[in-house]
Design a protein that fits this description.
12 helices; alpha+beta; 4-stranded antiparallel sheet; about 350 residues
Amino acid sequence: MKYIIYLTKCNKEKIDGKCKIYVGMKSVINPDEFDGYLSNNINIKQPASFMYPKTPLQCAVKKYGVESFERITLYEFDRLRDAKRQLKEILTPEFLRQDFVYNSPIDDYNEYLYQFDMNGKLVNSGSVSKITSVFGVHPFKLQGAVATKTAFLNHYWSTEPKINVEEYSPNPYSKYIFLYTPAGKLINGFYNYDACSKFLGISIDDIEEAIKTQQLTAGYYLSPTVTNSFYSKPRRNYSRSTFYLYKQTGEFIGAYVGKDIMLPLATFSWKKIKNILTLYDGKKDDLYVTLTAPKTIRIDVYDLSGNFIEQFTSEREVRNKYNMSVAKFKQIVRGNKYYGDHIFIYNTN
Protein backbone atom coordinates (compact mmCIF):
# COMPACT_ATOMS: atom_id res chain seq x y z
CA MET A 1 0.00 0.00 0.00
CA LYS A 2 1.26 3.45 -0.99
CA TYR A 3 -0.06 6.92 -0.29
CA ILE A 4 0.07 9.61 -2.94
CA ILE A 5 -0.43 13.37 -3.00
CA TYR A 6 -2.04 14.16 -6.33
CA LEU A 7 -3.12 17.16 -8.36
CA THR A 8 -6.27 16.95 -10.46
CA LYS A 9 -6.56 19.71 -13.04
CA CYS A 10 -9.24 20.85 -15.47
CA ASN A 11 -7.88 21.69 -18.91
CA LYS A 12 -11.01 23.62 -19.90
CA GLU A 13 -11.50 25.92 -16.93
CA LYS A 14 -8.83 28.53 -16.35
CA ILE A 15 -8.40 31.57 -14.11
CA ASP A 16 -5.91 34.16 -15.34
CA GLY A 17 -4.44 31.54 -17.64
CA LYS A 18 -4.05 28.92 -14.90
CA CYS A 19 -5.92 25.62 -15.05
CA LYS A 20 -8.14 25.11 -12.03
CA ILE A 21 -6.81 22.38 -9.75
CA TYR A 22 -7.60 20.20 -6.75
CA VAL A 23 -4.91 18.75 -4.48
CA GLY A 24 -5.68 15.64 -2.46
CA MET A 25 -4.37 12.43 -0.92
CA LYS A 26 -5.19 8.80 -1.73
CA SER A 27 -4.10 5.27 -0.85
CA VAL A 28 -3.18 3.17 -3.90
CA ILE A 29 -1.82 -0.28 -4.70
CA ASN A 30 0.22 0.81 -7.70
CA PRO A 31 1.12 4.53 -7.89
CA ASP A 32 1.92 4.17 -11.59
CA GLU A 33 -1.60 3.05 -12.50
CA PHE A 34 -4.54 5.44 -12.84
CA ASP A 35 -7.54 3.80 -11.18
CA GLY A 36 -10.16 6.25 -12.48
CA TYR A 37 -10.38 8.26 -9.28
CA LEU A 38 -10.14 12.05 -9.78
CA SER A 39 -10.99 13.26 -6.25
CA ASN A 40 -14.01 14.21 -4.12
CA ASN A 41 -15.39 10.67 -4.54
CA ILE A 42 -15.39 11.15 -8.33
CA ASN A 43 -14.64 8.11 -10.47
CA ILE A 44 -14.60 8.56 -14.24
CA LYS A 45 -16.16 5.10 -14.64
CA GLN A 46 -19.10 5.97 -12.39
CA PRO A 47 -21.19 8.90 -13.70
CA ALA A 48 -23.37 8.75 -10.60
CA SER A 49 -20.35 9.99 -8.63
CA PHE A 50 -20.62 13.45 -10.21
CA MET A 51 -23.99 13.75 -11.97
CA TYR A 52 -25.59 15.06 -8.77
CA PRO A 53 -22.76 17.35 -7.61
CA LYS A 54 -22.30 18.46 -4.01
CA THR A 55 -18.81 20.03 -4.22
CA PRO A 56 -17.19 22.60 -6.56
CA LEU A 57 -15.05 19.91 -8.21
CA GLN A 58 -18.03 17.63 -8.79
CA CYS A 59 -19.90 20.57 -10.35
CA ALA A 60 -16.95 21.20 -12.67
CA VAL A 61 -16.68 17.54 -13.74
CA LYS A 62 -20.37 17.46 -14.55
CA LYS A 63 -20.07 20.69 -16.54
CA TYR A 64 -16.88 19.96 -18.51
CA GLY A 65 -16.87 16.15 -18.65
CA VAL A 66 -14.36 13.68 -17.24
CA GLU A 67 -12.27 13.89 -20.42
CA SER A 68 -11.35 17.47 -19.47
CA PHE A 69 -9.58 16.35 -16.27
CA GLU A 70 -6.34 14.59 -15.51
CA ARG A 71 -4.73 13.43 -12.27
CA ILE A 72 -1.01 13.89 -11.71
CA THR A 73 0.96 12.32 -8.85
CA LEU A 74 3.04 14.89 -6.97
CA TYR A 75 4.44 12.81 -4.09
CA GLU A 76 4.53 9.16 -3.07
CA PHE A 77 4.85 7.88 0.53
CA ASP A 78 5.02 4.58 2.37
CA ARG A 79 3.48 5.97 5.56
CA LEU A 80 0.13 7.68 5.93
CA ARG A 81 1.36 10.21 8.48
CA ASP A 82 4.05 11.41 6.06
CA ALA A 83 1.47 11.90 3.34
CA LYS A 84 -0.82 13.83 5.71
CA ARG A 85 2.05 16.06 6.77
CA GLN A 86 2.90 16.87 3.16
CA LEU A 87 -0.73 17.60 2.28
CA LYS A 88 -1.05 19.94 5.25
CA GLU A 89 2.01 21.85 4.08
CA ILE A 90 0.38 22.37 0.68
CA LEU A 91 -3.14 23.25 1.80
CA THR A 92 -2.30 26.48 3.58
CA PRO A 93 -4.98 29.15 4.13
CA GLU A 94 -3.29 31.27 1.47
CA PHE A 95 -3.39 28.41 -1.04
CA LEU A 96 -7.03 27.62 -0.32
CA ARG A 97 -8.06 31.21 -1.05
CA GLN A 98 -6.64 31.12 -4.58
CA ASP A 99 -9.34 31.46 -7.24
CA PHE A 100 -7.85 28.70 -9.40
CA VAL A 101 -8.05 26.12 -6.59
CA TYR A 102 -11.10 23.86 -6.25
CA ASN A 103 -10.16 22.99 -2.66
CA SER A 104 -12.09 25.00 -0.11
CA PRO A 105 -11.43 25.72 3.57
CA ILE A 106 -14.76 24.10 4.43
CA ASP A 107 -13.69 20.78 2.87
CA ASP A 108 -11.43 20.03 5.81
CA TYR A 109 -13.79 18.12 8.10
CA ASN A 110 -12.26 14.75 8.88
CA GLU A 111 -14.00 13.58 12.07
CA TYR A 112 -15.04 10.01 12.76
CA LEU A 113 -18.84 10.09 13.03
CA TYR A 114 -21.53 7.89 14.54
CA GLN A 115 -24.86 7.47 12.80
CA PHE A 116 -28.12 7.02 14.74
CA ASP A 117 -31.69 6.33 13.70
CA MET A 118 -34.44 8.74 14.71
CA ASN A 119 -34.90 6.88 18.01
CA GLY A 120 -31.25 7.39 18.94
CA LYS A 121 -30.10 3.85 18.19
CA LEU A 122 -26.55 3.52 16.83
CA VAL A 123 -26.73 2.03 13.34
CA ASN A 124 -23.37 2.78 11.76
CA SER A 125 -20.13 4.72 12.01
CA GLY A 126 -17.27 5.78 9.81
CA SER A 127 -15.02 8.58 8.64
CA VAL A 128 -16.48 11.66 7.01
CA SER A 129 -14.81 10.73 3.72
CA LYS A 130 -16.45 7.30 3.80
CA ILE A 131 -19.88 8.72 4.65
CA THR A 132 -19.72 11.41 1.96
CA SER A 133 -18.67 8.76 -0.55
CA VAL A 134 -21.67 6.57 0.31
CA PHE A 135 -24.30 9.32 0.50
CA GLY A 136 -22.83 11.77 -2.01
CA VAL A 137 -23.08 14.83 0.25
CA HIS A 138 -20.83 17.76 1.06
CA PRO A 139 -18.92 17.24 4.33
CA PHE A 140 -20.04 20.68 5.53
CA LYS A 141 -23.64 19.44 5.69
CA LEU A 142 -22.53 16.63 8.04
CA GLN A 143 -20.60 19.14 10.13
CA GLY A 144 -23.73 21.28 10.34
CA ALA A 145 -25.90 18.32 11.40
CA VAL A 146 -23.45 17.51 14.18
CA ALA A 147 -23.17 21.11 15.36
CA THR A 148 -26.90 21.90 15.29
CA LYS A 149 -28.05 18.45 16.46
CA THR A 150 -30.59 18.18 13.69
CA ALA A 151 -31.60 15.33 11.41
CA PHE A 152 -29.72 14.86 8.16
CA LEU A 153 -30.49 12.07 5.68
CA ASN A 154 -33.16 10.89 8.15
CA HIS A 155 -30.52 10.19 10.81
CA TYR A 156 -28.76 11.92 13.66
CA TRP A 157 -24.97 12.30 13.63
CA SER A 158 -22.42 12.77 16.38
CA THR A 159 -18.73 12.50 17.15
CA GLU A 160 -19.74 10.53 20.27
CA PRO A 161 -20.90 6.87 20.28
CA LYS A 162 -23.91 7.72 22.47
CA ILE A 163 -26.43 10.56 22.28
CA ASN A 164 -29.41 11.88 24.21
CA VAL A 165 -32.06 11.83 21.49
CA GLU A 166 -34.15 14.41 23.38
CA GLU A 167 -31.48 17.00 22.58
CA TYR A 168 -31.94 16.47 18.84
CA SER A 169 -34.48 17.91 16.43
CA PRO A 170 -36.08 15.74 13.73
CA ASN A 171 -36.42 18.78 11.47
CA PRO A 172 -33.53 19.01 8.99
CA TYR A 173 -31.52 22.20 9.22
CA SER A 174 -31.80 24.32 6.08
CA LYS A 175 -30.16 27.65 6.89
CA TYR A 176 -26.79 26.94 5.31
CA ILE A 177 -24.97 29.92 3.81
CA PHE A 178 -21.92 29.69 1.58
CA LEU A 179 -19.59 32.62 0.91
CA TYR A 180 -17.96 33.22 -2.46
CA THR A 181 -15.29 35.72 -3.42
CA PRO A 182 -16.02 38.31 -6.16
CA ALA A 183 -14.33 35.88 -8.57
CA GLY A 184 -16.80 33.13 -7.56
CA LYS A 185 -14.50 31.04 -5.35
CA LEU A 186 -16.11 29.16 -2.44
CA ILE A 187 -14.28 30.44 0.60
CA ASN A 188 -16.40 29.82 3.69
CA GLY A 189 -19.67 28.45 4.98
CA PHE A 190 -21.98 28.79 7.96
CA TYR A 191 -24.75 26.58 9.25
CA ASN A 192 -26.73 29.39 10.81
CA TYR A 193 -27.47 33.02 9.95
CA ASP A 194 -26.25 34.30 13.33
CA ALA A 195 -22.71 33.01 12.74
CA CYS A 196 -22.64 34.51 9.25
CA SER A 197 -24.00 37.81 10.59
CA LYS A 198 -21.24 38.05 13.21
CA PHE A 199 -18.52 37.09 10.72
CA LEU A 200 -19.53 39.69 8.14
CA GLY A 201 -20.74 42.34 10.59
CA ILE A 202 -24.13 42.68 8.90
CA SER A 203 -27.73 42.00 9.90
CA ILE A 204 -29.73 38.87 9.15
CA ASP A 205 -31.98 41.01 6.94
CA ASP A 206 -28.88 42.02 4.98
CA ILE A 207 -27.98 38.36 4.54
CA GLU A 208 -31.41 37.47 3.22
CA GLU A 209 -31.33 40.44 0.85
CA ALA A 210 -27.86 39.48 -0.41
CA ILE A 211 -29.01 35.93 -1.16
CA LYS A 212 -32.10 37.24 -2.93
CA THR A 213 -30.42 39.91 -5.05
CA GLN A 214 -27.05 38.15 -5.56
CA GLN A 215 -25.24 41.40 -4.93
CA LEU A 216 -21.81 41.64 -3.34
CA THR A 217 -22.26 42.18 0.39
CA ALA A 218 -19.35 42.86 2.74
CA GLY A 219 -17.07 41.72 -0.08
CA TYR A 220 -18.76 38.36 -0.74
CA TYR A 221 -21.55 36.73 -2.67
CA LEU A 222 -23.87 34.72 -0.43
CA SER A 223 -25.70 31.60 -1.55
CA PRO A 224 -27.55 28.68 0.10
CA THR A 225 -25.97 26.22 -2.36
CA VAL A 226 -22.54 24.89 -3.29
CA THR A 227 -21.40 25.39 -6.87
CA ASN A 228 -18.20 25.24 -8.89
CA SER A 229 -17.89 28.99 -9.42
CA PHE A 230 -20.57 31.42 -8.29
CA TYR A 231 -21.80 33.75 -10.99
CA SER A 232 -24.50 36.23 -10.07
CA LYS A 233 -27.33 36.67 -12.56
CA PRO A 234 -27.04 40.21 -13.96
CA ARG A 235 -30.79 40.91 -13.77
CA ARG A 236 -30.99 39.94 -10.10
CA ASN A 237 -27.72 41.67 -9.35
CA TYR A 238 -28.57 45.02 -10.91
CA SER A 239 -32.37 45.33 -10.96
CA ARG A 240 -32.35 47.29 -7.68
CA SER A 241 -28.98 48.97 -8.03
CA THR A 242 -28.45 52.70 -8.44
CA PHE A 243 -26.29 53.61 -11.42
CA TYR A 244 -24.46 56.95 -11.60
CA LEU A 245 -24.00 58.20 -15.13
CA TYR A 246 -21.42 60.75 -16.30
CA LYS A 247 -20.05 62.10 -19.51
CA GLN A 248 -16.45 60.97 -19.93
CA THR A 249 -15.48 64.63 -19.51
CA GLY A 250 -16.65 64.26 -15.89
CA GLU A 251 -19.99 66.04 -16.12
CA PHE A 252 -22.62 64.28 -14.02
CA ILE A 253 -25.74 63.31 -15.95
CA GLY A 254 -27.88 61.59 -13.34
CA ALA A 255 -28.62 58.61 -11.13
CA TYR A 256 -30.81 55.77 -12.38
CA VAL A 257 -32.34 52.86 -10.49
CA GLY A 258 -32.56 49.43 -12.07
CA LYS A 259 -33.69 49.22 -15.69
CA ASP A 260 -33.99 53.02 -15.95
CA ILE A 261 -30.27 53.02 -16.84
CA MET A 262 -30.95 51.10 -20.06
CA LEU A 263 -32.37 54.00 -22.08
CA PRO A 264 -29.58 56.57 -21.51
CA LEU A 265 -27.01 53.86 -22.17
CA ALA A 266 -28.98 52.61 -25.20
CA THR A 267 -28.30 49.12 -23.88
CA PHE A 268 -31.25 46.84 -23.20
CA SER A 269 -29.58 43.70 -21.88
CA TRP A 270 -28.46 43.15 -18.30
CA LYS A 271 -25.62 40.96 -19.54
CA LYS A 272 -24.35 43.77 -21.78
CA ILE A 273 -24.62 46.26 -18.92
CA LYS A 274 -22.61 43.89 -16.72
CA ASN A 275 -19.98 43.71 -19.48
CA ILE A 276 -19.80 47.52 -19.62
CA LEU A 277 -19.14 47.61 -15.86
CA THR A 278 -16.75 44.67 -15.62
CA LEU A 279 -15.00 44.43 -19.00
CA TYR A 280 -14.94 48.03 -20.20
CA ASP A 281 -14.46 49.85 -16.88
CA GLY A 282 -17.89 51.47 -17.12
CA LYS A 283 -17.19 53.20 -20.46
CA LYS A 284 -19.60 53.25 -23.39
CA ASP A 285 -19.23 55.71 -26.25
CA ASP A 286 -18.84 59.14 -24.55
CA LEU A 287 -20.43 57.97 -21.30
CA TYR A 288 -19.18 56.54 -18.03
CA VAL A 289 -21.38 54.54 -15.63
CA THR A 290 -20.57 53.36 -12.11
CA LEU A 291 -22.26 51.81 -9.09
CA THR A 292 -20.17 53.96 -6.74
CA ALA A 293 -22.10 56.86 -5.31
CA PRO A 294 -20.52 60.34 -5.51
CA LYS A 295 -18.66 61.34 -2.36
CA THR A 296 -20.67 64.54 -2.03
CA ILE A 297 -23.79 65.99 -3.62
CA ARG A 298 -25.08 69.53 -3.92
CA ILE A 299 -28.66 70.54 -4.69
CA ASP A 300 -29.08 74.19 -5.61
CA VAL A 301 -32.61 75.64 -5.40
CA TYR A 302 -33.81 78.56 -7.55
CA ASP A 303 -37.13 80.29 -8.08
CA LEU A 304 -38.72 80.27 -11.52
CA SER A 305 -37.04 83.59 -12.32
CA GLY A 306 -33.64 82.01 -11.87
CA ASN A 307 -32.83 83.60 -8.51
CA PHE A 308 -30.74 81.43 -6.18
CA ILE A 309 -32.55 80.56 -2.93
CA GLU A 310 -30.52 78.00 -1.00
CA GLN A 311 -28.26 74.97 -1.22
CA PHE A 312 -28.52 71.47 0.29
CA THR A 313 -26.05 68.62 0.68
CA SER A 314 -28.64 66.08 1.80
CA GLU A 315 -31.38 64.50 -0.30
CA ARG A 316 -33.50 63.96 2.80
CA GLU A 317 -33.42 67.66 3.72
CA VAL A 318 -34.61 68.65 0.24
CA ARG A 319 -37.46 66.15 0.23
CA ASN A 320 -38.58 67.10 3.72
CA LYS A 321 -38.56 70.88 3.19
CA TYR A 322 -40.26 70.82 -0.19
CA ASN A 323 -42.59 67.89 0.57
CA MET A 324 -41.11 65.91 -2.30
CA SER A 325 -41.69 62.18 -2.83
CA VAL A 326 -38.79 59.78 -3.40
CA ALA A 327 -40.04 59.16 -6.94
CA LYS A 328 -40.09 62.87 -7.71
CA PHE A 329 -36.62 63.38 -6.28
CA LYS A 330 -35.33 60.60 -8.55
CA GLN A 331 -36.64 62.61 -11.48
CA ILE A 332 -34.68 65.62 -10.22
CA VAL A 333 -31.53 63.50 -10.04
CA ARG A 334 -32.11 62.33 -13.61
CA GLY A 335 -32.29 65.90 -14.87
CA ASN A 336 -35.92 67.01 -14.52
CA LYS A 337 -35.26 70.40 -12.89
CA TYR A 338 -38.77 71.67 -12.17
CA TYR A 339 -40.93 70.89 -9.17
CA GLY A 340 -43.71 73.17 -7.98
CA ASP A 341 -42.54 76.78 -8.02
CA HIS A 342 -38.86 75.96 -7.90
CA ILE A 343 -35.91 74.77 -10.00
CA PHE A 344 -33.58 72.14 -8.54
CA ILE A 345 -30.06 71.62 -9.88
CA TYR A 346 -28.42 68.34 -8.78
CA ASN A 347 -24.60 68.37 -8.78
CA THR A 348 -21.91 65.95 -7.62
CA ASN A 349 -18.29 66.33 -6.60
